[in-house]
Design brief:
With 73 residues, this protein is an alpha+beta fold. It has 1 helix and 7 strands, in the order ββββββαβ. A 5-stranded mixed β-sheet has the order 1-2-3-4-7, covered by helices on one side.
């Protein structure tokens, strides 16, 4: 979604946690924020992974964006 031709917003759905994370990019500066990225957690092992967050970063890079902020709400 492009808002007023200034921002690009993508909602990214995580099927494991049923949560939505957002990528918000300023189209002029190509700076972006990741909002509510998922930290993958395996309850059996008690370990965490960053695969979901890494996919968000890869998506930002594919848009030519530079991740400047990560917000957790």
């Amino acid at each position: 979604m492009i808002i007023g031709e200034k921002l690009h917003v993508e909602a990214l759905f995580d099927t494991h946690t049923w949560t939505i994370s957002y990528l918000v990019m300023d189209l002029h500066s190509k700076q972006c924020a990741l909002i509510d990225s998922v930290l993958d957690y395996d309850p059996k092992s008690g370990r965490t992974r960053t695969e979901s967050a890494d996919r968000m970063i890869e998506r930002a890079q594919s848009l030519g964006a530079s991740v400047q902020w990560i917000f957790e709400t």
